[in-house]
Hints:
Elements: H1 13-25, H2 41-47, E1 57-62, E2 65-70, E3 75-77, E4 80-82
InterPro entries: HalOD1 (IPR040624)
Organism: Natronorubrum bangense JCM 10635
Protein name: Halobacterial output domain-containing protein
Amino acid sequence: MPETTLDYHNDSISLSVVEALADSLDTDPVELEPLYHAIDPEALDQLFQESTPISARVEFTYGGHTVEVQGDGAILIDGTVHTRS
Length: 85
């Protein structure tokens, strides 16, 4: 299964989540409902910074889909790991 590699210096975890959702739903990211309808993107970005422990994990529901963000930068949509294109 491919792994997501998050560059904490250049990437926003919330943006990576939106990209993973768009990929999973086979749609353009601009067509998605705003992420803030499910979770506060700024809070998510603050939780997942370079100093975040690998054991950290946040799970939330977005449009009926389960989204999991892990401390190592992995993003799972309905249990499937997504990579950024």
